[in-house]
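Record 1 of the preview.
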Amino acid sequence: MNKMKILITGANGQLGSEIRLLSPNYNTFEWVFLDKKKLNLSDLINLETKLEVISPNIIINTAAYTNVEKAEHERKISNSINHHAVSIIANWSFNNNVKFIHFSSDFVYPGNTINPLKESDITNPVNYYGLTKILGEKKCLLNNPNSIVIRTSGNFSVYGNNFVNRILKKMQNEKMINVVDDQIFSPTYVKDLASAVMSILCNKNWVSGIYNYSNLGKTSWYKFAIDIRSISGLECLINPVSLLEFNSDVKRPKYTLLDKTKIMKTYSISIPHYKLGLKKCIKNIINEK
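->
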């Protein structure tokens, strides 16, 4: 019996790396991990041809253009990766009866509410990065209605240039830092997200549509930084500042706390509190040094 072949794009990113670590435990699947060098989503012309050669049964698209600041100025490439490439993959997967899981962002929401956000709530991005993500979502589900789209927020892990890694470095090198305190969200420990993906793959039922996923808990970037300081044992003065004081030309949604009820019920997924993931993550970062 042939194994189901799963293609992971963005293999060296946070989620791709975490899925790779878990993959040996799921040897009923054949795993194909491709990084940017082997499958560049900005190369739209050759994308379908490469998919034909790989011929997967399932595609998990973890690749994305994620730099919110640069997206405002590098519009062509951010839109190519987050929107047009997703459209092509979704179209190809539909025509070839291939299952498709795509990842989106809490930045598709306007962030002007005070209640946890459901998948059905209004989307209206306040920056160009968010716009590319919602356009990608729409084309994904339009071209392949059988797709699964997972919106996440505040991703952190041992890998990559994420908030936890950046703050740890800053606290080691600076006596005082400023962190935004009026942007409310729920962080995502990417290792937990990877486990959730495995739960979906192993579930007998494939229920298409949009799902929110982040860890449990509610925080701001400032309070998240306080948690990082407390767990790491580092000493650094952390000052809370507002988004208006933060030196950025890019607008950001102020409230993107995600409601995870739908994914928990549909796939019987248990989601831990973000502080549990943060403790594990920092421990692993420290042990790697």
